Amino acid sequence: MFSVTVRDHIMVAHSFTGEVFGPAQKLHGATFVVDATFRRPELDDDNIVVDIGLALEELRAICGGLSYRNLDDESDFAGINTSTEFLAKVIADRLADKVASGGLGAGAAGLTGISVTLHESHVAWASYERAL
Amino acid sequence: MFSVTVRDHIMVAHSFTGEVFGPAQKLHGATFVVDATFRRPELDDDNIVVDIGLALEELRAICGGLSYRNLDDESDFAGINTSTEFLAKVIADRLADKVASGGLGAGAAGLTGISVTLHESHVAWASYERAL
Amino acid sequence: MFSVTVRDHIMVAHSFTGEVFGPAQKLHGATFVVDATFRRPELDDDNIVVDIGLALEELRAICGGLSYRNLDDESDFAGINTSTEFLAKVIADRLADKVASGGLGAGAAGLTGISVTLHESHVAWASYERAL
Amino acid sequence: MFSVTVRDHIMVAHSFTGEVFGPAQKLHGATFVVDATFRRPELDDDNIVVDIGLALEELRAICGGLSYRNLDDESDFAGINTSTEFLAKVIADRLADKVASGGLGAGAAGLTGISVTLHESHVAWASYERAL
Amino acid sequence: MFSVTVRDHIMVAHSFTGEVFGPAQKLHGATFVVDATFRRPELDDDNIVVDIGLALEELRAICGGLSYRNLDDESDFAGINTSTEFLAKVIADRLADKVASGGLGAGAAGLTGISVTLHESHVAWASYERAL
Amino acid sequence: MFSVTVRDHIMVAHSFTGEVFGPAQKLHGATFVVDATFRRPELDDDNIVVDIGLALEELRAICGGLSYRNLDDESDFAGINTSTEFLAKVIADRLADKVASGGLGAGAAGLTGISVTLHESHVAWASYERAL
Fold it and tell me: Which of F20, F84, F124 shows the shortest C-beta gap to C46?
């Protein structure tokens, strides 16, 4: 199995609902360093997993649509705890949509899986992994 | 599949038995930076994998029970080579016990796997992965 | 010259005033990984720069007083752009106060400088350096 | 499942053929930081995954056979795009050959898998994973 | 003293002249992860060291003018060993020119120093520091 | 001012004397990732700060003379707290001796300073800086 990973980041405000979150129930914020991994069992005709330029570009576009805002005010996330693990899924699903709609090029049709890791600090990170 | 990882560290002395260990047969030491990963297929009702505060706290307690000592003198490890990979299993198993006994909260009942990685230097690390 | 550095982090929301900040004028957030460095020309009687346990403890206390909040609502920062470089100075000055009031132990009287670096992402960080 | 990873690096020139590579069609170069992971379900009689000294030595030998050259001039890679993901496979396969020929010691017979990750920058890396 | 650092990277081929370079006399290549630091004693009216958006943009432009090429073929570097330390100076000087010509904004007039670090691998890096 | 840094590591056991050390008064251990920086105002005739191959080799030799042992048993350190900051000085001074005796090549005569940083964990490191 082959994979390629590209990195970008988002900077957001948000708050959580539920006693389990302790002080994070208050409005606070985070930088999430975002690693997006694309997987496939065999390389394509160019000997690659995915066009890394397009992968970086599409990840940047998705991060741009999430960054520099208060996630509590986003209609997409109304009533939802935007935990690190949940946001990993949001980004993975949006990347999967890009793959399906051809945004990562024709070669990306051979991709079989995506995973996304969000680093919230030097001591904590979360991931979501899915098939394509 | 979702996961959350938290990081802590231990600082220990130990020695190894067996020619394969070369100079490490002598008493020496290591800092192990410890990454503990918790896995589950679906998020819980709070939209998380595990209470990250409790995860950090329990990992800290386990690290506290191993750190600042000579592992050669610990009865738990009598006659055992406390290799990096073996210590990864020790910590993963102790975390699994914590999950089973409720130390990571009721929500942690949905966890299905744990893996632990110990970084012994900038050029070597070891992992152990198990089901719950 | 000797130095010792310890690391912690804060997670905050804030917004900026001024066209130079572009999209960061909107309420957003950041994780700042905080590195605090203590300097002195000679080691103390214990052969150290500073009690590293106390240094970690006091840095944690200062980070605790800043984290998990919206800095726009803090009276200390009313009307101030809480840029990364400014926050580095805030933390350095608070550490300097701790040194002066004995919070880092008697040995810390020999410290001659402090610097603080705040990492806001994998591609940007800021520092402030001062004498004691 | 247990694993051990060791790190080394190579510094190479190369160029790519195909429009998908954009500016990388020109002769350029890369440092690849190479992480080689060895896997097995149970530890050996010495309580380890693999002789880490031999693992570092064999990885160094393989890296030495690739580094400080223009891959476009290597007969092994004639007419091949030496992408990061392809080179990960090259190194993993060469390590697998070493395991098979006894270069990693008798204990290495219990290894069941190898994966190799090549970091080409702080924002991109690629991996290849195979069974033994 | 305050500073802000931004990161980008270049991927180049080159060779060196001189026995001191050993195997690096052959055409090879490197990824240089580039950290550019801007310094000043006091913050500007916006409470910052430099417009970080412009800093990233100008660093990207300078990296773009160096990356994806064989430095041996660049007229700027004819007959010059493009060592890591030398390239750090090239980038620092080009950034200094940008500051002087207003490319980093009017506020950048208060900058007093620049340093650039190029990481060539996980075990080696080089820096150049200059006044403005 | 130019600098070049190379990295290696040591793995040692030791204990400390003095209440300030808390639990670290017991025999324990550490991995110290060692960064050695060489400084000079102008590059040499080869356009470099120092022969990086020799720098890595000499640092490796010095690390080899410290690693895989219990520092409490070393006559060089009898009655001395081998703190991270102290060990940074030990390594810097040994490197300075190598420079003086020609071990880093004739070009190294132009070096004006050395600093050494020892990383003891992901949250603590110490440095020593000296002139040549």
Answer: F20
Beta bridge partner(s), residue A101: none
Provide the pLDDT for residue C2: 98
| Calculated CA dihedral for residues D108, D109, D110, D114, nearest 10 degrees | 60
Nearest residue of F to residue C108 by CA position? F20
What are the distances in angstroms from CA F44 to CA E116, F38, F103, F111?
Answer: 19, 13, 16, 9
Q: Is the ipTM of this complex over 0.95?
A: yes
Per-position pLDDT tens, chain D of length 132: 999 999 999 999 999 999 999 999 999 999 999 999 999 999 999 999 999 999 999 999 999 999 999 999 999 999 999 999 999 999 999 999 999 999 999 989 999 999 999 999 999 999 999 999
CA F60 to chain centre: 10
3-state SS class at F13: strand
From chain C, the residues in CB contact with E5 under 8 A are 124-127
Compute the radius of gyration of chain D from its Cα atoms.
Answer: 16
Q: Which residues of B48-85 are buried (b: 16+ CB within 10 A; e: fewer)?
A: bbbbbbbbbebbeebbeebbbbbbbeeeebeebbbbbb
Closest alpha carbon to E116 in E44, E46, E66: E66
Please write the tens of the pLDDT for every residue from F78-122.
999 999 999 999 999 999 999 999 999 998 999 999 999 999 999
Q: Which residues of chain E have pLDDT under 50?
A: none
Contacts of F123 in chain B (CB under 8 A): 9
Could you tell me which chains touch chain E, where touching means 3 or more CB pairs under 8 A?
A: B, C, D, F
Looking at beta carbons, which residues of chain B come within 8 Å of A71?
none
pLDDT, tens only, B66-99: 999 999 999 999 999 999 999 999 999 999 999 9
CA angle D105, D111, D114 (to 5 degrees): 110
Q: Is D86 at the interface with chain A, CB within 8 A?
A: yes
Residue B116 to residue D30: CA distance in whole angstroms: 31
Confidence of residue A54 (pLDDT cuts 50, 70, 90): very high
Chain E with chain F: Cβ pairs closer than 8 A: 61
Chain C touched by A67 (CB under 8 Å): yes
Judged by DSSP in three states, F50 sits in coil
Q: How far is D129 from chain A (nearest CA, A)?
A: 5
B122: contact with E, CB 8 A cutoff: yes
CA distance C29 to C32: 10
Residue with tokens 């949250």: F123
Q: What is the pLDDT of residues C65-108, one digit of tens each?
A: 999 999 999 999 999 999 999 999 999 999 999 999 999 999 89
The CA distance from F119 to the nearest CA of chain A, in Å, is 15
Predicted confidence at residue D28, as pLDDT, reads 98
DSSP of E19-84, one letter per residue? Answer: GGGGGGGSSEEEEEEEEEEEEESS--TTS-SS-HHHHHHHHHHHHHTTSSEEGGG-GGGTT----H
* DSSP string across chain C: -EEEEEEEEEEEEE---SGGGGGGGSSEEEEEEEEEEEEESS--TTS-SS-HHHHHHHHHHHHHTTSSEEGGG-GGGTT----HHHHHHHHHHHHHHHHHTTTT-GGGGG--EEEEEEEEETTEEEEEEEE-
Distance of CA A18 to CAs A25, B45, C128, Å?
7, 10, 37
Instruction: Give Cα separations from F96 to A73, C42, E35, F51, F104 (angstroms).
Output: 59, 18, 27, 15, 10
pLDDT, one tens digit per residue, over D37-67 is 999 999 999 999 999 999 999 999 999 999 9
